[in-house]
Amino acid sequence: MKVNYPSNHIKVKDVSHAYGELPVLHNLNLTVNHGEFVVLVGPSGCGKTTLLNLLSGHIKPSSGTVEREGIIRTVYQHDGLFPWLTVSENISMGLRYITNAAQRENELRELFQLIHLEGFENHYPHELSGGMRQRAELARVVAGESDILLMDEPFSALDYQTRLRMRRELIRLLEQRPRTVVFVTHDIEEAAQLANRVLVLSNRPATICRELQIDTSRPRDLTGSDVVNAMKEILNELGLHAT
Amino acid sequence: MIFIPEKDNAMYETNKNRLTPLSPAIAKGGKASRLILPLVVLFSVVLIWFLVSFFHLFPAYALPSPADVLKSFKEEIASGRLFNDIVASLWRVAIGFTGSAVLGIPLGLWLGQHAAARNAFVPMLNFFRFLSPLAWIPFAILWFHIGDKPAVFLIFMATFFPLVLATMSAVATIPKIYFRVAKDYNYKGVELLTKVTFPAVLPQVITALRVSYGIAWVVIVAAEMVGCQDGLGYGIWEARNGLRLDSAVCYMIVIGALGMGIDRLIAQLTKLPNVRWGYES
User: Fold this and answer.
1) pLDDT of B70 over the 80 cut
2) Is the minimum CB–CB distance between A84 and chain B shorter than 8 Å?
3) Does A2 touch chain B (CB under 8 A)?
4) A13, A54, B127, B259: most buried by Cβ count inside 10 Å?
5) Cβ density class A128-157: b for 16+ within 10 Å, e for less
C-alpha cells in the first residue's frame, strides 16, 4: 500500500462509490499535499462522510483507487473517547508505541499543557464538557506519530462560542504539531476560517464542483475580508446566496 | 478562559432542586429519609403480623407469632445449625454462580462478535433459558446423586444461559465508533477484546450478574429441598416436615436478608470509577 508520493499525502483517483443501487460519489479525483488543511463542504447527505470513510480505509471504493501514506487518525463529532478510560488514559492511546515510560509521561504532560486540560488528567469523559472532550480528542490524534488527521464535523455538536474557541485551538495545535488534515463540515464559516483549500461538493452523486484556495495566514479573523469573501464564494457555489 | 465541567453544573442543578422540599420529613436530608422510610414500613409489617397472631385471626399452627420465631431463631443459632446451613448454601451458590460467570461471560463476548455463531446458537440458548431450572432436578439427582453437586449444577443451569445472552446482546450494542477508534490505534485480537470490547460491556455485565445472582439465590432454596442434608432450603423443608412453621419463618427471614445483603455487595461494583459512565445518563 505504501507508495512514495514525496509531496502527495493522499491521492484519490477516479473514485466512484455506491451503496447498492444508490450512487454516492462519482468519478472523484483529489490529491492532498503534506501539511495541507483541506476542508470538504457540501449539501447534507452528499457523501462527505463517505469520502472520509474511504480515506480512512473503513470502506473500499466501488471503483478507483485511494492511496495514502502514514498513520491516519479520525476525530468524530462526539463520543470518540473511550468512556471507561480517564482523559489521560485516552490520550495515552496515541502514545502506545513509546516503550520508555518516562518519555511517555513527558509527552503526555506536554499534550495536556497544549490543550489546557491540566488538572483533568484523572477525570472520565462523562465528567467533562463537550468542548473539553473534543480538546482531549484533538490531543489524542496528534499524540505521537500520526501523519494524517481526518475530522468528521468535529465541532458541530458544540455551542457556537465553544466552536469558535475550538477553531483557534486547532490552529494553534497544528502550528505546534503540523499534520495533514482533511476536515469535513457543513459550517461554511468554519471552512473559510480554517482551510488552505476548500472543496465544494455537488449534490449526490457527489463530485468536486469547486476548489477554493485561501492563502492568508492563520489564525484568521472571522470578519476579515479574506474570510468573508471566501464565505461568499462558497455560498454562491452552494446556491445559498441571498440574491 | 474558564471551563466549567458539566458535572459541576449538574450538581448545582440538583442542589437547587433540593431547596424545594417534598415534605418536612424528607427535607431533613436524603440519607436519613432513605433509612427511616423503609424502617417505618418494616416496623408496620411486623406490627400487623403481631396483631394478626395476637388476636388469633389464624390458628397458631398456621401462623407462628413473632415471639415464636424469635425463640426458634435462638434455638437455631445456639445449636449452630443455622450458621452451618448458611455456609452450605452460600458455598453452593458461589461455586455454581462463579462457574457460570467464568464460562458464560467469555462465551457471550465471543457470540457477540460472531454473527454466524450467534445465528447458530441463539435459538438453542433461548430454549434452555426458558426451561425452569427446577425441571433439571431429576437429572441433577440421577447424575450427581446427593451432596453439593446437584445443587451446584442447578445453580449453574439457572444462571448460565441468561448470562451468556445478556453479555452477547451487550456486545451487539457497542457503538461502532469504538471499534473504529480501536482500529486507528492498532488494537487487535486479544487486546481488542480485553481493552475495548470487555470494558465497553462491563456496566451491562455487572447488571446481568446482579440479575442472575437473584435467580441463583431463588433456585438454591428449591434445589436444596431435594438431595441435600443441609442448607437454607433444606432447613425450610425440614421445618415443613416437622410442622415447625416458626423455624420455617426464621429461615425465610435469613434467606431474604442474605439475598438482599449480597445483592448490595454486588451493587458495589457499579461504583467502580471505570464503569460509572454506564449508569449515568
Assistant:
1) yes
2) yes
3) no
4) A54
5) bbbbbbbbbbbbbbbbbebebbbbbbbbeb
Residue type, A97: Y
pTM: 0.82
Q: Does the pLDDT of residue B263 top 90, yes or no?
A: yes
The Cβ-side half-sphere exposure at A219, using a 13 Å CA radius, reads 13
Residue with cell 436478608: B257
- Which residue in the set B1, B5, B199 is minimally distant from A127, CB to CB? B5
Q: How far apart are CA A156 and CA A188, in angstroms?
A: 12
Chain A CB contacts of B188 under 8 Å are none
Instruction: State yes or no: pLDDT of B21 exceeds 50.
Output: no
Q: Which three cell numbers stand for residue B41?
A: 414500613
Ramachandran class of B27: left when φ > 0, alpha when ψ lies in -120 to 50, beta otherwise: alpha
Instruction: Give whole-number Cα distances, A70 to A5, A8, A91, A146, B200, in Å.
Output: 11, 11, 19, 7, 29
CATH 1.10.10.10 fits B68-279, yes or no: no
Nearest-neighbour CA in chain A from B163: distance (Å): 22
pLDDT, residue B42, reads 93
Q: What's the mean pLDDT in B138-165?
A: 91
- Ranges of CATH 1.10.3720.10 domains, chain B: 68-279
The DSSP bridge partners found for residue A199 are: A40, A211
From the CA of B162, how many Å to the nearest CA of chain A?
A: 25
Interface touch A127/B274, C-beta < 8 Å? no
Q: Is A214 helix (H, G, I), strand (E, B) or coil?
A: coil
Tell me the mean pLDDT per 10 residues along chain A, length 243: 55 87 86 90 82 88 87 89 94 88 89 88 92 91 88 90 89 89 91 90 81 84 85 84 66
Please give the domain boundaries of chain A with CATH numbers for all domains: 1-70+149-243 (3.40.50.300), 80-146 (no CATH)
Could you please report the per-residue DSSP string of B116-148?
Answer: HHHHHHHHHHHHHHTS-GGGGHHHHHHHH-SSH
- The answer, yes or no, to whether residue B162 has pLDDT greater than 90, is yes
User: Hey, how many other C-beta atoms are within 10 angstroms of the C-beta on B109?
Assistant: 21
Cβ contacts of B186 on chain A, cutoff 8 Å: 96
Residue of A nearest to B177 (CA): A80
> What band does B35 get if pLDDT is binned at 50, 70 and 90?
confident
A235 and A187 in contact (C-beta within 8 Å)? Answer: no
State the nearest Cα–Cα gap between B4 and chain A, in angstroms: 7
